[in-house]
Amino acid sequence: MADLKKYQMYIGGERTDPAGGEWFESFDPYTAKPWALIPRGNADDAGRAVAAADDAFTTGDWPALTASARGALLRRFGDLLAEKAEYLGQLEVKDNGKLLAEMGAQLKYLPQWYYYYGGLADKIEGSVIPVDKPGMFNYTRHEPLGVVVAIVPWNSPLLLATWKLAPALAAGNTIIIKPSEYTSASTLEFVELFEQAGFPPGVVNVVTGFGAEVGEPLVAHPKVAKIAFTGGEMGGQKVYETAAKGLKSVSLELGGKSPNIIFDDADLDNAVKGAISGIFAATGQTCIAGSRLLVQDSIHDQFMDKLVAFAKTARMGNPADLETQVGPVTTQPQYEKILSYIDVAKNEGAECVLGGGPASRPECGDGWFVEPTIFDGVDNTMRIAQEEVFGPVLSVIRFKDEDEAVAIGNDILYGLAAGVWTGSIRRAITVSERLRAGTVWVNTYRAVSFMSPFGGYKRSGLGRENGQEAIREYLQTKSVWISTSEDAPNPFVIR
Ligand code: NAD
Predict the structure, then answer these.
(1) Distance (Å) from CA 153 to ligand 1 centroid
(2) Which residue's CA is the closest to the ligand 1 atom numbered 9?
(3) Is residue 192 among the annotated active site residues?
(4) For ligand 1, atom 35: residue with the closest CA
(5) Phi and psi dihedrals of 446, rounded to 5?
(6) Do 198 and 264 share a domain, yes or no?
(7) 27 & 166 share domain
(8) How far is the centre of ligand 1, averaged over its atoms, from the C-alpha of 212 (Å)?
(9) pTM for the full model?
């Protein structure tokens, strides 16, 4: 244990040991060996972090800052983040095993969120309402909620923390980040940059540990106003239930089982790349994975030949190698879950046309690798079509025509994203309208931006991240009435 990097939490601007004096190991998925020690937070740590964040929200420099000054701090933070992006990207690869090619690009793009919401900070404008009451002046203010708790999963730790942090801070809240127990290191290192940028102590805090031990007490704490959660459905439900007891504001970004629909009028070579990026990029560990590939009957055989041939060329190996295309699975439980779903699909009668088990190629070392796997002949009622696997496992489902494609696409409890591949503008527009999903990509897949709203329909979540409307998730509206009348009215009658 001596050579493992030992981290501390970050509360009220100070590095601090966990109250319980315990740490746990963080693993490198490529070597399947521990490399760092993460503080195991508990309810005492949650209480300390909420006290610090509440203090920073109500007293001191933060509430006194103008909105423009808040924006300037966010932009300064963006500059500091840009300088450290490469290092942070490497750190994330060590913890979650995703490709350096992907995490590096993600981290380089991340400052844009702080520039965008920094610019938005002083454009949060209320209105003057021309109320129908003589002798009254009425206006609205959009005010921060207070202490926000951001709960983040392991697949894109700093990206998904940023989707919450940037709008929450621009709106004037203070925040506690609870990263995933599997990938806490990058958040514990990037939080220092807030201090360097000049944010007052307590505005941004990080507590680490397990959902039940430190996440729950944070969500339940009476001084927490809002929870912004990204993660699995079970965790999301639990957070929603706990938050309901305190009548707190909640936004949830949950899982998906997104349809990626290939029509016979599509450019098939591009559609093959879209299908691959929908499921094998990030080793399928992405909420927006296009894990249900709907292929029109008339092109099915031709398309499958191209798809399997392309997928066979995917280079597996060390995620830190820029040439690698498919890396390991992030956690051992996830690795086991994916393999068990492969068995489920085989038992259900789906036809395995590629992969279908653990990867034992020499370049995969001892890591948690699963072969890119494709099941053909899947029926949409099968478990492999209905449940989120969160791994490199694709279910191919055939359809006859547009109506059937839309019906199958929507026949799912989730509604995070969908893909449509077609050469017809009419079809692009009408099918996008008919699909019940928060994001629809046409002739592309997996595009996201700080400027464009992201979130789920149905069980994929509540609320939106990114874009201008996301800032509303961190604000509440106050209506101010001022009498301009010299006379006091009849006190026994509502005005
Ligand atoms: P998870 O729900 O197990 O954990 C997510 C976070 O919630 C972790 O920090 C965990 O410690 C915390 N947590 C768990 N239970 C909690 C509780 N009761 N109270 C407070 N905190 C709790 O999810 P995961 O396995 O880390 O992530 C994978 C899931 O995340 C997948 O289902 C995926 O689809 C989803 N995801 C969604 C999006 C999106 O934007 N919609 C993005 C990425 C991942």
Answers:
(1) 4
(2) 180
(3) no
(4) 231
(5) 65, 40
(6) no
(7) yes
(8) 12
(9) 0.95
